[in-house]
Amino acid sequence: MKKTTLFLAIVLSASTIALAQNAKTKQLDAMIQKGMADWEIPGLVTVVVKDGETVFQKAYGVKNLESKSPVDEHTLFTMASTTKAIVCQALGILVDQGKLNWTDKVREHLPYFNLSDAYLTEEARVQDLLTHNLGIQQADLLWAMDSVSTKETLQRFALSEKNYPVRGGFDYNNIMYAAAGEVIQAVSGQHWTAFVTENIFKPVGMNDAVAKSVDIFKKGNYTTPYLNDLDDGIVQVDYNLADQIGAAGMIWSSMSDVTNYLKYLVNDGVVKNDTILSKNTFDYLFKPHAFVTDASFYPTQQLTKPHWKTYGLGWFQHDYRGKKLDFHTGSIGGLIAICGIIRDKDVAVYVFANMDHAELRHAILYKSMDLFAFDDNSRNWHEEVFQLYSKLKEQEKEYHQKLRDEKVADTKTTLPLEHYEGEYAHPMLGKATVKNTDAGLTINFNDFLMLPTQHWHYDTFMSTKENPYRAAIDFNFNIGADAIVKSFEAFGETFERQN
Length: 499
Hints:
Layout: H1 2-39, E1 43-50, E2 53-61, E3 77-78, H2 83-96, H3 106-109, H4 118-123, H5 141-144, H6 150-157, H7 174-188, H8 192-204, H9 216-219, E4 226-229, E5 233-236, E6 252-253, H10 255-266, E7 270-271, E8 274-275, H11 279-285, E9 290-291, H12 301-304, E10 309-311, E11 316-320, E12 323-332, E13 335-342, E14 347-353, H13 360-374, H14 381-406, E15 422-426, E16 430-437, E17 440-445, E18 449-457, E19 460-463, E20 474-479, E21 485-490, E22 493-497
Antiparallel strand pairs: 1-2, 1-14, 3-6, 4-5, 7-8, 9-10, 10-11, 11-12, 12-13, 13-14, 15-16, 15-22, 16-17, 17-18, 18-19, 19-20, 20-21, 21-22
Helix pairs in contact: 1-13, 1-14, 2-7, 2-8, 6-7, 13-14
């Protein structure tokens, strides 16, 4: 009788667990479906892993609105800046191999590495490339406006200014991760993309993943990026294939890939009997290494109300329900990702979607943690996050309306349009060629980014949205006392006339 009673207890317990698990799955699924409708997301993927097992895995919607091709487990999405964690792991493998120390000076491995501040140049350590607190301003315009090699990008970055003392602030910096990729090659003898493919993708089971974004077209099963424009609604946007800063965020992978990746993370860097990273090194990646300011953190802090905010090696961090949550978003024109893990609970989450800044990703992260780490279904995370970002979108609309309202009607340029033509240059960002066309001035940055503009008022021109970023950008031309155009200002930078 005792054996029978014990057997029945085990069966009933397993049944209860299964029912609870099924309820959580339905609750998360319902929230995602409602969220996709409200955010107008074409396609999305969500995976949740707990205690090494997949507890939620589902692909939603389509990868392309025209073809209606459904998202499946092998459809490639960009990992975007969640790539950073993988690059840090690759460096950790080299640390375990005894070929690298986190505290090595960068110039020991990259002699050409140079910054605008001599002390920072010599003091910069490998770890400083990963924590966004070295003290140099970010310079994303370098890869948004040109497509030169990684090495030349880093050489130009030497002109980016120091903006706070070494390790004395926080300024998110993609270019430093590009430098980290160069360190991987210098130490291992392999390009960082080959190194992560061999040492992480293959053993972890990320069989669809590509480390060079341009390779997605060879694969064939990839998603299309979309943006919900304030004026035009949902529009397709260009693929961003900036592989010169690829280590900052250009890996693409699939639902199948990230399922295996999350299992590897939850298992502390071990796959079956294969130790990818030693326990000490894996733990080091998740230690807090830099404080993050309120201004540099996510708006969701208004909802989660963390007591502290830090950055590990490739991970944002904050306290959530008394535990440390490590997570990172990824955003590349028209595509998003988020990855998060509460190591104390052995729960990890990954989300992909093909809608620009679809912040449903945050709701999915926190709802998944509530359900599978804390057995709690009390908060309507989609509603809270949607309301938060709807307010921010309204503020954006008000800003653009204010620009329109402040436009001075019936003004003319100081000079005839042909006088604005010419070659302009910025010491870090390169060349800009201004040409007068029937439609207005066209500004060509480095034969890479072409921006048609129209006269706004006085000597200010506004670009159309016919550009890879679907952005209206203002250009203000400065005229000297000699009635000659001297420069123009755009993106907060000044381009000086050369002829």
